[in-house]
């Protein structure tokens, strides 16, 4: 059953409209967003889809087809940040942020469903926030732009849900376009749509969901963030984005702490890898981005230290089996990796990864192609 029909069954009326917002994978540029650097995500064909109607009585009703349980009923005047630990905090957070910003949201009925795998590092949470933000923007005629909606969604996750994420996921979901990767400057949110048509080149980008999420990741994000801020402080810049790659060695020599030095080296070199990938894509040398992806993985593994045995196994196995390059993607400690392959090698490389996981006693991974897809949009 589609969300339009589901909405009718739950609320007894037709929704005013239906919207979709995608999950994403990041091609290159990891842990660079909160350093005001560069990232390059692409939207997946997997989307959160929401059927939504306005209300005038202050009531906010939320229902997910993917979650067991009754309709969650809240009141827009009584939303309290950091109190709700359920899924409903994501859409409720968007309403709270909009109202805090002075937008007159007087209630809504929401019924949603998502094909973005949760907890796989593919940003099911951003898809949820962005789809609700876009629906309310359209219904309440707020006139907000894609980047503005992304900021609102990020604030909902940071301040209402309590997850300290950067801006990449929400920007990808709000602003990506079909057939492109999104080159995003996380300082001013300026974007450039980079044509990323792998199929015409005989290439495929695979997503490998490792099916694990290590608890270690919980405090690690905040710790890396703190370490990066410490590095910026010691180097006398506002953010690590301001350390030029050409001056990296000199900058590293000025840092006393081995841990901070590793984090700075990762961030500055990954910003540089985004540049490299852009240059190669602009020059039509798509295959040449493979080794850059693998260098990014080594940096995440050895300098930032956010990989895990399962993700390392994907990358090592894929590369040994003839992939052009591979890296973990997203927050780390589990989640997904991406693998660039000749399309004709897809089956053999997928099989090699599956066999390696079986031999290691790991849960079978989920493998699918990352087809660059459209960002958030109204469906009907
Ligand atoms: P990721 O964003 O990497 O998928 P997160 O932990 O950030 O992982 O977000 C996952 C959370 O988002 C879920 O635990 C749930 O609360 C919420 N969520 C995602 N998809 C849905 C859905 N279809 N229905 C309800 N809640 C969802
Ligand atoms: Mg998330």
UniProtKB/TrEMBL annotation:
Pathway: Carbohydrate metabolism; galactose metabolism
UniProt KW keywords: ATP-binding, Carbohydrate metabolism, Cytoplasm, Galactose metabolism, Kinase, Magnesium, Metal-binding, Nucleotide-binding, Transferase
Matching Pfam families: GalKase_gal_bdg, GHMP_kinases_C, GHMP_kinases_N
Positions bound to substrate: 30-33, 221
Active-site residue numbers: 169 (proton acceptor)
GO molecular function: galactokinase activity
EC assignment: 2.7.1.6
Residues of the site described as Transition state stabilizer: 24
PROSITE patterns assigned to the protein according to its UniProt record, in alphabetical order: GHMP_KINASES_ATP
Role played: Catalyzes the transfer of the gamma-phosphate of ATP to D-galactose to form alpha-D-galactose-1-phosphate (Gal-1-P).
Protein name: Galactokinase
Organism the protein comes from: Streptomyces cynarae
């Amino acid at each position: 059953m589609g969300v339009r029909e589901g909405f009718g069954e739950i609320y007894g009326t037709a929704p005013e409209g239906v919207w979709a917002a995608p999950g994403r994978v990041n091609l290159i540029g990891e842990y660079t967003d909160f350093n005001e650097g560069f990232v390059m995500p692409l939207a997946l064909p997997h989307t959160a889809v929401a059927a939504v109607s306005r209300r005038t009585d202050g009531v906010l009703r939320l229902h997910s087809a993917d979650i067991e349980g009754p309709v969650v009923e809240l009141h827009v005047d009584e939303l309290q940040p950091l109190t709700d630990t359920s899924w409903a905090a994501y859409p409720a957070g968007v309403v709270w942020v909009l109202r805090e910003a002075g937008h007159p949201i007087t209630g809504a009925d929401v019924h949603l469903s998502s094909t973005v795998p949760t907890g796989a590092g593919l940003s099911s949470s951003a898809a949820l926030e962005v789809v609700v933000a876009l629906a309310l923007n359209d219904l309440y005629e707020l006139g907000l732009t894609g980047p503005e909606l992304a900021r609102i969604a990020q604030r909902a996750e940071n301040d209402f849900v309590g997850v300290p994420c950067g801006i990449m996921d929400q920007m990808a979901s709000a602003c990506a376009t079909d057939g492109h990767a999104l080159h995003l400057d996380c300082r001013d949110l300026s974007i450039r749509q980079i044509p990323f048509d792998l199929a015409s080149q005989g290439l495929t980008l695979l997503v490998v969901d490792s099916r694990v999420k290590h608890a270690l990741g919980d405090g690690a994000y905040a710790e890396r963030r703190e370490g990066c801020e410490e590095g910026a402080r010691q180097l006398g810049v506002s953010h690590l984005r301001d350390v030029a790659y050409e001056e990296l060695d000199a900058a590293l020599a000025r840092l006393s702490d081995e841990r901070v030095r590793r984090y700075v080296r990762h961030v500055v070199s990954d910003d540089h890898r985004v540049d490299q990938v852009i240059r190669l894509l602009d020059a039509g040398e798509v295959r040449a981005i493979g080794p850059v992806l693998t260098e990014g993985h080594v940096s995440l593994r050895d300098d930032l230290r956010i990989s895990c045995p399962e993700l390392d196994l994907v990358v090592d196995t894929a590369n040994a089996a003839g992939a052009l390059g591979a890296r973990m993607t997203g927050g780390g400690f589990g989640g997904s990796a991406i693998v660039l392959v000749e399309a004709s090698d897809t089956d053999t490389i997928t099989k090699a990864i599956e066999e390696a996981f079986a031999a290691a006693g790991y849960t079978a991974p989920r493998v699918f192609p990352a087809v660059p897809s459209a960002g958030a949009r109204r469906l009907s």
